Amino acid sequence: MSRASASIKAYDKLFQAAGWFTTMVGLFVLLVLFIDIFMDGYKRLSLDFLTSYPSRKPEQAGIFSAWVGTVWIMITTAMIAIPLGICSGIHLEEYARKNKLTDFIEINIANLAGVPSVIYGILGLGLFVRFMDLKRSVLAGALTLTLLILPVIIITTREALKAVPFSIREAAYALGATRWQTVRFQVLPAALGNIMTGIILALSRAIGETAPLITLGALTYIPFLPKNPISVSDQAPYVHVSAQGFLDPFTVLPIQIFNWVSRPQKGFLIDAAAGIMVLLLITLCMNGIAIYLRHKFQRRW
Amino acid sequence: MENLMEHEIQEKEQIRPGNPIAEAIRESVFSLQNLSSYYGTKKVLNEINLDIYGHSVTSLMGPSGCGKSTLIRCLNRMNDLIPSFSAQGKIIFKNTDIYSPNVDVTELRREVGMVFQKPNPFPKSIFENIAYGLKIKGISDRRLLEEAVEDSLKRSFLWEEVKDRLNDSAYSLSGGQQQRLCIARALAVKPEVILFDEPCSALDPISTAKIEELMFKLKEKYTLIIVTHNMQQAARISDTTAFLMMGELIEFGITKDIFTHPKHKTTEEYITGRFG
């Protein structure tokens, strides 16, 4: 073996070791964080914790209104952001002519995806809370988070559509399909796995957002839930549908956690750790679903 | 080389006795009049005049970049998908210029089907692949769809191989089967003309032979136009051949004549393998 090839081999080994080391640094820090939170939080984590409203006494405080608020916000955000994002993505990728205007829109969407979330909070405060007079409601919060994740959804939709090979479109057009028939029945189903993956990842980012909702003025002490959209009573017509919940005030898990962390009592730190565990679990579940969808819809062309 | 060609032509004559060429050439299906086309400002076809006859196989032959793919994609206006494309001149199909503004392109493409170079089935089941062309026409009756799927698969000689697994993914088929599925898919829409853009270039010789045999049967009912850069293939399967080079139509005529007595020196040089 020549000296040159020996030194090349040595570099290879060196790089391998360096790669392993850097990966481990990240994993190790994460692991320490997990263990730290778990050690603090596991004592407080119980059904009681999940079904109690916040309280002045740390041992009685729970995250009921926080996790229900998070569910409300996430579902409302998804209902608004998903159709808007997918339709915009389809329009930009499949319909819009390539010209200066679409280039301009494209660059701006990419930029919007990088805007700090606090800025969206300020926008939401001005536009939804004050101008549209939605108060500090679920709807105002969801609209603000929609603005936050819309660029990400549009970009992932476009990327997913772009990944569908041109030959699939050609095949559909050659059979006499219109543009809509091509997109609706061939391109979109083929891209759906990637689109859904992107959407879930966007939502799992939104679920941890605190800054825009605090800027919006979301309350930290909420001893009640938004009104159920469907309720049953013993009076006709027995089943009542109400949209009032969308206009009710709310809090979400990250705000509750933030609030507890900033308290001086030790007990609230334990509550916060338990809350973080719940939030982490929800995020992990969502990411798990995203990975599952990616595998389920994975296609070879 | 020339001997090989002649041998193959003779073989073809044996498959089909009588005088197939005179029989085949009855009426022109497509009439191209001074057709020029451009990508942006680059001219890719220059004043092509060509009549394509019904119930026969016409091959478009020529070296890479000669414009043969562009030409075949003019016939069902697939080039419309390329934003910079433009065409001048006329293509008469059923007494109408297909490039005139009031032509419904989707209607045209139902009558002029297409099979592509690389098999491109949809990422769906075998059944769905064929049913799609009918569904977009508004046919949703399950029984009608089943009949059409069976009929199309029988016509493309794929039925026996796939009849027990119509709900399997089209990607579970071999390359040659996928290409025949694509042909079945085109047949289901009941076209009059089928365009083949180098349909065998991604296939092995056995699959190629099957496709060629299939085309031979199909021309009884359909008009077939095939782009190929494989001269032997053009000689084997086509009744008429057009030879293109650098966007010009050099020669067009009965395949046998083109291969045995080419009128142009360039054609002769190409088919004898002196370039290309």
Structural summary, described in words:
The complex is a heterodimer of chains A (301) and B (276). Chain A is mainly α. Chain A has one domain: MetI-like (MetI-like fold), CATH 1.10.3720.10. Chain A has 11 helices and 2 strands, in the order H-H-H-H-H-H-H-H-H-E-E-H-H. Chain A has a two-stranded antiparallel sheet. In chain A, helix 3 (64-95) packs parallel to helix 6 and helix 8 packs antiparallel against helix 11. Chain B is an alpha/beta fold and 276 residues long. Chain B has one domain (2-20, 35-271): Rossmann fold, CATH 3.40.50.300. Helix content of chain B is 39%, strand content 25%. Chain B is built from 12 helices and 10 strands. Chain B has helices at 2-15, 20-24, 68-74, 105-111, 126-135, 142-155, 159-162, 175-188, 205-218, 231-237, 255-260, 265-271, and strands spanning 28-39, 42-53, 57-61, 85-93, 96-97, 112-115, 193-197, 223-228, 240-245, 248-254. A 6-stranded mixed sheet of chain B has the order 6-7-8-3-9-10, sandwiched between helices. Chain B has a 4-stranded antiparallel sheet with strand order 2-1-4-5, with helices on one face. The radius of gyration of chain B is 19 Å and the shape is globular. Chain B starts with a helix and ends in a 5-residue tail after the last helix. The interface between A and B is medium-sized, with 23 and 28 residues.
